[in-house]
Batch of 4 targets.
Target 1
Amino acid sequence: MFNALSILATYSTEYSSSYDAGAAAASMIPSIVGSLIGYVLMAIGLMKMFEKAGVTSWYAWIPILNVYWLTKIATGNGWLFLLCLIPCVGSLIWCILTAVKLAPAFGKGGGYIVGLIFIPNIMYLVLGFGDAQYMGPQ
């Protein structure tokens, strides 16, 4: 006779004991380190951009505040950062809007817009440490 509960009990005891929490934690370490490196590079690039725009540079290290000031530098209206609170579509709209407005604010063209959409952390470093001068929202 078929007994689903005995099969389920056998399955759960055989496979749950083979789970190794230490291995799972160790596999997360490269992801955490990579995320921290990415955040530090982004914040350094934003610091230099904020300095060029006349904004206090340490704002780049505070998560919500840096998005507000980046939006304000790009568009002139900092409250547009609230688009980021709308899941998926709002973040995508914010990303594109900021890129389209940020590149001309630093005197750059279409190539920089594409770069700011697809590789923003690197482009923040390029705008911050490059020869771009902040000209204000366009």
Note: The radius of gyration is 22 Å.
Target 2
Amino acid sequence: MEEEELRSELEGHHPAAYGWALHCCGRNPGDAEDVLQTAYVKILGGRARFNGGSSFRTWLFAVIRNTAADQQRSWWRRLLRESGWSAQQRGAPGDARLDAPADYVELENAMMQLSNRQREVLHLTFYQGMTVEEAAEVMSVSVGSARTHYERGKARLRSLLNGVLR
């Protein structure tokens, strides 16, 4: 894929890519912007190459997910090296935001109680409009595993929200 076509594809998927990066970064906008920029640099610099084995969007989301995981590992290594820091200083993912409607806060808190895989597959299917098969590819798991996480995540979310949301 030529650079101009690549840039066009990235621009077309940017809003959804940012939403996925935001999810991968525990809803921290600054971290999401860093991850997305790093992913774009990898792609435009040729360190991540689209080979056409999946849709461009699925491939892009996998690059973003892997970049976020790399940056989180790097952050934890740095945190462990520095004295005087605690995980609480960074802010816990899923902290309620004062400007969010109550129902959104309840949903976000319930989502944070799901396993990482369940959260990922539900985000990809509900917020990004992917199929379970596409989500499996982004998550680097089998389709059967993604379906299991999807079904269990929906059931757990339903039970957590039962009676909370009207």
Note: Residues 82-99 have pLDDT under 50 and may be disordered.
Target 3
Amino acid sequence: MNKNNLCPKCGKKISAFYMKEKCPHCNVNLMYYNMEERLAADEVNAKKEVDAVNHFLGILKSSSVASPLLIVRLVLFFTPLASMCLPMYGDVSLISLIMGLINSEIQIGDVIMPLVSMALVVVLSLAVIISSLFSVTKTGFLRNMIFSVINTAVFIVLGLIIGGAGIGWYITLVIYLLEIVMHILCERQIRQKAD
């Protein structure tokens, strides 16, 4: 039986189609009965929700922008997008790849591996960014390191498979290695603040 189909005072069943404001059994006003208690309960629930949101925002702030070192790390996460605009494999860069596909100058089959590599750079970099937003959590550092090491390893393996690494590939690799170093430095700083 649905609780909403019971009178809050007498507890007797009321039809789901009953539209009057007073209980047909005890004549209590259904809308205003125990209004203060319901408002107090709503206030408690609203406070819990606000506290949960504030806690979540605190985690995000403490993990990403609470210090200059964390801000530098956050900015570093977006730099592979710029380095991919330089030649990554031979003379293939993100810009030349996109323009060649748009202008039908190259076939997708000819550049499938560089395309996969660059797509993985973007996807795995997003995973690293999202993971880093929760660095202050209990397993944050471990998660950051796992995502960054996987990202770097996949990038290196694809670079070896594709071959012809250009300046953009080397710069992206250096960025990934710097990200790992930044995770370690940021973890030390976060732990020092926690102590």
Note: Residues 49 and 55 are 10 Å apart (CA to CA).
Target 4
Amino acid sequence: MSTFKNLEEAVKYFEGDKYAMLSGMKLEELSDDHAVSSVLLTEDHKNANGGIMGGAIFTLADLSFAALANNIHKPTVAQNVSINYLAAPKGKKLTAEAKIIRNGRTTCVLQINVKDDLGTDVALFTGTGYKL
């Protein structure tokens, strides 16, 4: 059973994630078993070398992780996360889709795939959430 009644309620809740919101990230989909967030890439997301900053990619994946984890059980906090950067994004938009790998009594494990709008696999994020 979902914590949030609908997507609008979840979007309102995650307006409290100020860093993600100020970075242009949006929660687009949320269900019992998946979450999708996205960001349109701008100059503000670039690093000193002109590529997209790893922190921007991480933050997007973390938003999808937080949305799904807290839809499973609220509050849930990150206990452990890891990210593998697979390729530099070439497109103009990133999308992060979270899915449940394991949903236990006190923890959950989620996998988040980050892609650009050209279909490039950009990052693979795995997170363990601790249910408070």
Note: The first helix runs from residue 7 to 14.
